[in-house]
């Protein structure tokens, strides 16, 4: 007895195709259609995996930048603390050999010795001092270079022993060393205009 059960959409499509173009051609085209669907699924899967891979890579880069950014911020805090506690010696310990800076009315200063020598008059004088605090830090996507920007405070005692304070801003560029530490490769700053005392 012939069965009148409802055909699935795929078998119904194959039956109509067979009726129009003949059984042999219908089977051939049906197989091609199935292969086309499989190919589409395969391409979609590959695209999905590519998207997931790109997202994972971007997340890894973002995570690395965050770690480097925080490492730079902490290095800058430690730099200021070492300078306060150990003066010129502490300051010098954070300076890279290839450091560079710019100063008003002076040639470009290059090299650790010349850079540190420029700070010696301030840091070897017990009546003077400097502290600073990073306000922000940024890092490259490679995670081995970055900068910090912050506010600084210079202090000294005048002839009467009164403490005089000057404020300013600075930018420091850091490079990660082979041992994982961060060293200063560029540093410069500006002092704020003194307040009007009139």
Mean pLDDT, all residues: 80
Mind describing the biggest β-sheet? 6 strands, mixed
Strand content: 25-35%
CA-atom Rg in angstroms: 35 Å
Helical proportion, percent range: 40-55%
Strands, total number: 6
CATH class of the largest domain: Alpha Beta
Low-confidence stretches: 1-23, 25-30
Number of domains: 2
In whole angstroms, the N-to-C terminal distance is 114 Å
Q: Give me the number of helical elements.
A: 3
Structure summary:
With 198 residues, the chain is an alpha+beta fold. The protein has 2 domains: 9-55, no CATH class; 67-191, Nuclear Transport Factor 2, Chain: A (Roll).
How would you describe the overall organization of this protein?
With 198 residues, the chain is an alpha+beta fold. The chain folds into 2 domains: 9-55, no CATH class; 67-191, Nuclear Transport Factor 2, Chain: A, CATH 3.10.450. Helices cover 48% and strands 29% of the residues. The protein is built from 3 helices and 6 strands; from the N terminus they run ααββαββββ. Strands 2-1-6-5-4-3 form a 6-stranded mixed beta sheet. Helix 2 (23-92) crosses helix 3. It is elongated.
Helices and strands in order, then pairings?
Layout: H1 9-21, H2 23-92, E1 95-101, E2 109-110, H3 112-123, E3 128-139, E4 145-157, E5 163-176, E6 182-191
Parallel strand pairs: 1-6
Antiparallel strand pairs: 1-2, 3-4, 4-5, 5-6
Helix pairs in contact: 1-2, 2-3
List keywords for this structure.
alpha+beta; 6-stranded mixed β-sheet; disordered N terminus
